[in-house]
Write a structure and sequence with these properties.
By secondary structure, the protein is an alpha+beta fold. It has 1 helix and 5 strands, in the order αβββββ. Strand 2 and strand 3 (about 80-85) form a beta hairpin. Belongs to the YajC family.
Length: about 120
Amino acid sequence: MFFSQAFAQDASGGASGFGSGLEMLFLFAPLMVVWYFFLIRPQRAQMKKRQETLTSIRRGDQVVLGGGIVGKVTKVIDDNELEVEIAEGVKIRAARAYIAEVRVKGEVVKTEAAS
């Protein structure tokens, strides 16, 4: 008698299982959309802005390195490295990826045309 009751309960529970799976899909789909618009898109925009800031660093900019060292860019060595003066006469090479902040933008370097 115990087994017949268990089979009867199992048979009725199987029919409602499909509906609950579909309901879960309708519940999670809007959550994923909200997650995309509130987390993923702003993070991509922030990463793009940081990349633009790093590529626009030029001589004369005051920068803060990842360790908190503040210095002035004296030379752009290549796309990945900069020469930063952290004290008078003390220059170090730093990777662009470790620049935490650009505080003061330097002046545009004017090129003289050959006369």
